[in-house]
Amino acid sequence: MNSKQILQLAGISGAIAVGLGAFGAHSLEALLIQNGRLDTFQTAVNYHFYHTLALLGIGFLATVKPDWKGISFAAWSMVLGILIFSGSLYVLSLTGITWLGAITPLGGLAFILGWSSLVYLSFKNK
User: Sorting pLDDT into bands at 50, 70 and 90, what band is 100?
Assistant: First the structure.
């Protein structure tokens, strides 16, 4: 994945995060309260935003350091983390399917891999 694609994914992810956050706050609030999952949905939105910003930073890093190998791994890890971590919490909040909580930590692991790969890249490359 090149820097342009990473930045495009960050833009798409950010737009989705804003949309879901607004939709959750305005149109889904009653359902989320009924399901007892308002806080869970907010956690999903927060992590979605945090890691979208990380993805944006990775895109800028890929623009400045295009020769760094492994940047796309960091980007894909963040995308995978958003999909699994936030995605599972979104679905759990709306449907009440509790077993989805069991896969949420896999998304957290993807986030950790993404952040760790940035540390590795900083040591490996100049």
Answer: confident
Contact 40, 89 (CB under 8 A): yes
DSSP the chain: --HHHHHHHHHHHHHHHHHHHHHHHHTSHHHHHHHT-HHHHHHHHHHHHHHHHHHHHHHHHHHH-TT-TTHHHHHHHHHHHIIIIIHHHHHHHHH--GGGGGTHHHHHHHHHHHHHHHHHHHHH--
Decide if 81 contacts 110 (C-beta within 8 A): yes
Q: pLDDT, tens digit, for every residue of 30-54? A: 899 888 999 999 999 999 999 999 9
